[in-house]
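Record format v2
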Amino acid sequence: QVQLQESGSRLVKPSETLSLTCTVSESLSSGGYTWRWVRQPPGKGLEWIAYTSHSGRASYNSSLKSRVTISVDRSKRQFSLKLSSVTAADTAVYFCARGPDSGYFDSWGQGILVTVSS
Amino acid sequence: DIQLTQSPSTLSASVGDRVTVTCRASQYIDIWLAWYQQKPGKAPRLLIHDASRLQSGVPSRFSGRGSGTEFTLTISSLQPDDFAVYYCQQYHSYTWTFGQGTKVEFK
């Protein structure tokens, strides 16, 4: 059973950059899986943010694309998210997740609440 | 982007009821749809993928049907552990979207 764990800053000031890392219990190259970030504002639904393959191929939600970067560090079994120029609207629980290449999300981290506030 | 619309938004039911949640896609997505269950303070849990394939470890009272643009999730006999929010999610292309969620609450 793969384990995913989010870490990073839980409080970010407006206009600054949100940075999160997901540490995975298995190799990022195993099983043909790919790696994603999803967020959920308090009391609201789920929003996919970004996707990466183990080789670094990336895809982004068009509504966030200008502010988002996803990256991979295979040696550390980690992938990361950066979201720039944050506002209060970016306050959410951020989840990292795994899934087959173009598919569903079969394993999730527990989530990390990030609050944007001065 | 492909939009997913779930109905109803809230469903009130009792233990033992058969319940059905519908998810409609704004364009054709073949069978590329998954269903998730989410409880308060927890990550979503994958129930069904490829519209009708039960994820390993998920009870057989959960089932999914559909293709194209209309899909359903059915719980054949609602159990106390099933009161939660359910989301559909499409993966027709390398952009993923979720439905807005259906809350199954105790009647």
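Chain A has no helices and eleven strands.
The two ends of chain A are 39 Å apart (CA to CA).
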